[in-house]
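About this split. The held-out portion is used to measure sequence recovery: a designer receives only the structure tokens and must propose an amino acid at every position. Recovery is the fraction of positions where the proposal matches the reference. Here is one held-out target exactly as it appears in the evaluation file.
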């Protein structure tokens, strides 16, 4: 797996998948096109009694003008997985000839037959998978689309995220904005010619939240440097001009309060060490620069937030515990009760005055964040959790102040205060937020573990002008620049992606690729940052550093997956949009209903506690409803589970591209497997050669290898590798092949020296009008029975030999198929190989339904047919020829050692290339959505049960009422329970397969 996997990760993560600026969309799909016309589909507006054949005949009888091209603007796509989802949605429709998606340009171009499908239906299909689509009449100009990420402080609930999303989405130049409450981050795709990252930050801050730039998404790197030394205005200007003059530096920003400078630069032209050296030189050594440890800022922000909530909670306890004791406990101790009921002024008692004094700092000092949040929310016209808390606690506090002041000015008014309600509410909510932030911080531990794979330091080699090593220097690994040469000692970690220029060793790449065996490395081989050198010393030239490294790209992929919303989250979003206003209205109606009931004497006075009147009782019901109904848990139900699941999957070598892939995977009831490289090892070897003509074996293989050398097919590579063994020289030069033609899944033909050579399967020979002798047919049948592939070699239109190639079946393939069957998942094998080999492999692994000799479009067509029969289909493949089926399937699973095209087309990447991970992906998705469903039970259960009880539904029959502070505790508990329930996924264990 080694070389293929290394090439995969360095090409896929560096060059592909939605991180580069897109160019003008050509009418060429990223994946091979689908069948021209659907089978058995009814034409739009056509008669219902005509079969698919008649319909196709009618279409063919028409003119070519029936084929129409339409371009759609699509907002909401962020990566290759999104583009794959759009292509899937479109290509599943009947009458789609071709579709091409420009992921960063935000558009899709579709070739279709209007007799089968309409433009409106295509638009609806795109919108059904979670993207916004609009038909446009002409192609838009090329856009400089970037993906920006912001960290947002101050979001309290789902209402906050909806507000920020709306503001960003309506900003000019923004194509799509996604805000996650669990990560407190926003991901924005924008046109940098229309809007800048700074303007996006301003847009967020105008809504009352604080935004911190994580990345602009531009093709440049960012570094934060700490400056130690005395800086005045003049030296700052000199520093700025000196740094700005460096080639590749695009922006310099100083923060004098933190003594920090933020520099955006192009890594191809400069690097962090150059920047540090310039700062030092420009100030004659008076100012030194170093890596600013809080360059990311997200973890530090979380730690500060945890500390702030902990301190606030502890301070609130200092005041709230005496309030609780004086109102709930001491009243049952006679001598303390007498002291608390002693009148201070008129009817105002000592206990009331004490509670008023103690509750005031809790209400206005410790609870000021709720005031600030509520004020900002009301200013932007979007009430949130802070508004409910502020309304509830203020109502309790100010009514208590009114009641106490009235008692102080009256000789006979008996006051009833709710100071304990407001203070205890704030205390419980602070405790809940503290526990919630603690728990949410653990949801991203998988990303932290991935980032920790990179070593802290690296050994930089110094060279003289003649290229000789003259010294070593240990530096911070974040200071590595492109083309640096890094020394990696045995047992050390590779500090950056690059290639070996000296030395030999074995490198453990399991933490990145999943390859369990150490991979041999020598001069010219690529290495991946974060992997472990086991023996021998390597000198590695850095090629991809910082955000360009494979490790950083994997982290970014997981982060993007965690930001992506699962379709099921739409349910919570729809509820959250109207939830808070409805709760406020319901609270008011509850208070009015109970107050009116008391005035009309529709319930006995015996129900009312002796110390309360009907107004106070109604007020308590209204406050309880307002507090218990906060929608925090609802907004956390889905994203926390998706975050944990994608992180857990990544740690087990299963890269899940977002919530949509998770949701689709848990519904899978049918899996279509490719054979070569999926069910088999994917590295076929030549096991036998049968010559039908008199010729030298080496000469025979020279011709075959010369024709196959240009093919990427695994069988071709096996033939070439076997041919190399027949030559003593290491780099044998094959005869020149002219007029090379490759037919995917069938074979190749070329002119080699003085012969016309054709290498391929039986059907390829027949289609080339080459007669297959009886002896060759018997050999092919014999090889098929042995589960071998017989490759026919013809020269000058005459069969001269058959090469037998065997591709070993992957370990535990039979056990995996058997386990999937126990999960009620049917397994089907679709392969381009011959029927004999396919049947033999299928029998060995336990697959009964087999489709052989299938072309790429036939694989996709079969997936569509299964979907039309009501099945939820997953496709597992590794090659370019599998990408149409991967796109068409509900869930595409790409083998990690496969091609980057297949990986881009897939929804889930199995990095370890183990079949067992297919089970892991499906099982993890099922368990995740079980958690999500339970989260909704927790979140909605609190509200469905709690709101009626808080409103007093049990009061007429039992006299039971829910105190507001208890309602606050329940509200806080709902959020904590949802997050903790999601966190249990961290202990997920893959199913144990018998024999593994």
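Reference sequence for scoring:
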């Amino acid at each position: 797996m080694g070389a293929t996997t290394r090439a995969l990760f360095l090409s896929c993560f560096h060059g592909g998948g939605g991180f580069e600026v897109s160019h003008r969309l050509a009418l060429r799909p990223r994946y091979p096109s689908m069948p021209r016309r659907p089978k058995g589909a009814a034409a739009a507006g056509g008669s219902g009694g005509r079969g698919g054949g008649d319909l196709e005949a009618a279409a063919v009888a028409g003119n070519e003008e029936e084929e129409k091209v339409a371009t759609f603007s699509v907002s909401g796509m962020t990566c290759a997985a999104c583009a794959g989802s759009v292509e899937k949605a479109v290509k599943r429709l009947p009458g789609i000839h071709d579709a091409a998606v420009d992921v960063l340009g935000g558009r899709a171009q579709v070739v279709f037959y209007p007799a089968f499908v309409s433009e409106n239906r295509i638009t609806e299909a795109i919108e059904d998978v979670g993207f916004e689509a609009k038909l446009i009449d002409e192609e838009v100009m090329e856009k400089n689309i970037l993906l920006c990420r912001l960290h947002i402080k101050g979001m309290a609930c789902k209402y906050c995220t909806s507000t920020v999303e709306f503001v960003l989405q309506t900003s000019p130049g923004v194509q799509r904005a996604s805000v996650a409450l669990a990560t407190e981050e926003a991901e924005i795709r924008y046109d940098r010619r229309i809007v800048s990252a700074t303007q996006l930050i301003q847009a967020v801050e105008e809504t009352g939240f604080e935004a911190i730039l994580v990345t602009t998404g531009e093709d440049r790197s960012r570094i934060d440097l700490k400056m130690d030394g005395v800086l005045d205005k003049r030296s700052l200007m000199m520093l700025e001009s000196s740094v700005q003059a460096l080639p590749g530096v695009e922006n310099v920003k100083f923060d004098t309060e933190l003594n920090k400078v933020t520099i955006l630069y192009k890594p191809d032209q400069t690097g962090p060490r150059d920047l540090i050296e310039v700062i030092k030189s420009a100030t004659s050594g008076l100012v030194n620069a170093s890596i600013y440890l809080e360059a990311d800022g997200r973890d530090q922000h979380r730690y500060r937030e945890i500390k702030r909530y902990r301190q606030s909670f502890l301070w609130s306890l200092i005041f709230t515990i005496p309030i609780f004791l004086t109102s709930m406990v001491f009243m049952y101790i006679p001598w303390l009760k007498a002291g608390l009921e002693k009148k201070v002024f008129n009817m105002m008692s000592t206990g009331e005055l004490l509670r008023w004094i103690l509750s005031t700092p809790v209400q206005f000092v410790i609870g000021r964040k709720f005031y600030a949040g509520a004020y900002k929310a009301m200013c932007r016209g979007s009430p949130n959790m802070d508004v409910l808390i502020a309304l509830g606690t203020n109502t309790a506090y100010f009514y208590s102040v009114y009641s106490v002041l009235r008692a102080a000015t009256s000789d006979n008014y008996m006051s009833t205060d709710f100071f304990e309600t407001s203070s205890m509410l704030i205390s419980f909510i602070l405790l809940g937020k503290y526990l919630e932030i603690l728990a949410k911080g653990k949801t991203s531990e998988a990303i932290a573990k991935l980032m920790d794979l990179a070593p802290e330091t690296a050994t930089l080699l110094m060279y003289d002008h003649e290229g000789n090593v003259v010294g070593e220097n240990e530096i911070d690994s974040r200071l590595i620049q492109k083309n640096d040469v890094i020394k990696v000692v045995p047992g050390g970690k590779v500090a950056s992606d690059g290639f070996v220029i000296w030395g030999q060793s074995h490198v453990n790449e399991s933490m990145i690729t999943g390859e369990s065996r150490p991979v041999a490395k020598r001069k010219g081989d690529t290495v991946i940052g974060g992997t472990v050198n086991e023996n021998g010393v390597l000198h590695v030239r850095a090629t991809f550093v910082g955000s360009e490294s494979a490790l950083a790209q994997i982290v970014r992929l997981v982060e993007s997956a965690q930001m992506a919303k699962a379709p099921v989250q739409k349910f919570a979003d729809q509820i959250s949009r109207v939830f808070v206003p409805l709760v406020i209205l319901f609270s008011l109606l509850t208070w009015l209903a109970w107050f009116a009931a008391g005035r009309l004497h529709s319930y006995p006075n015996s129900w009312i506690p002796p110390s309360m009147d009907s107004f106070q009782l109604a007020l308590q019901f209204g406050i309880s409803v307002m507090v218990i109904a906060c929608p925090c848990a609802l907004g956390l139900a889905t994203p926390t589970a998706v975050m944990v699941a994608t992180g857990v999957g990544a740690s087990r070598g299963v890269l899940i591209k977002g919530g949509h892939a998770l949701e689709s995977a848990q519904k899978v009831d049918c899996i279509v497997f490719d054979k070569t490289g999926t069910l088999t090892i994917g590295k076929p070897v030549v096991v036998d050669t049968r010559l039908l003509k008199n010729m030298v074996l080496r000469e025979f293989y020279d011709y075959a290898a010369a024709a196959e050398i240009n093919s990427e097919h695994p069988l071709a590579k096996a033939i070439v590798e076997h041919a190399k063994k027949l030559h003593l020289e290491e780099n044998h030069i094959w005869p020149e092949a002219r007029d090379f033609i490759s037919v995917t899944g069938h074979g190749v033909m070329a002119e080699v020296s003085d012969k016309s050579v054709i290498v391929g399967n039986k059907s390829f020979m027949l289609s080339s009008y080459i007669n297959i002798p009886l002896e060759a047919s018997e050999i092919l049948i014999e090889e098929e029975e042995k589960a071998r592939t017989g490759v026919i070699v013809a020269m000058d239109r005459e069969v001269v030999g058959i090469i037998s190639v065997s591709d070993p079946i992957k370990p535990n393939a039979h056990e995996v198929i058997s386990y999937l069957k126990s999960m009620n998942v049917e397994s089907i094998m679709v392969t381009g190989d011959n029927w004999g080999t396919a049947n033999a492999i299928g029998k060995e692994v336990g697959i009964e339904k087999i489709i052989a000799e299938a072309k790429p479009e036939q694989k996709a067509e079969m997936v569509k047919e299964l979907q039309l029969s009501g099945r939820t289909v997953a496709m597992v493949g590794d090659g370019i020829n599998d990408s149409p089926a991967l796109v068409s399937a509900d869930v595409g699973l790409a083998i990690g050692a496969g091609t980057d095209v297949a990986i881009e087309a897939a929804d889930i990447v199995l990095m370890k290339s183990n079949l067992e991970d297919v089970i892991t992906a499906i099982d993890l998705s099922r368990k995740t959505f079980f958690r999500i469903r339970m989260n909704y039970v927790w979140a909605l259960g609190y509200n469905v049960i709690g709101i009626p009880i808080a409103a007093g539904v049990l009061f007429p029959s039992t006299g039971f009422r829910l105190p507001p502070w208890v309602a606050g505790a329940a509200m806080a508990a709902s959020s904590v329970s949802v997050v903790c329930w999601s966190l249990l996924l961290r202990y997920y264990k893959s199913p144990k397969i018998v024999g593994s």
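Annotator remark: The radius of gyration is 34 Å.
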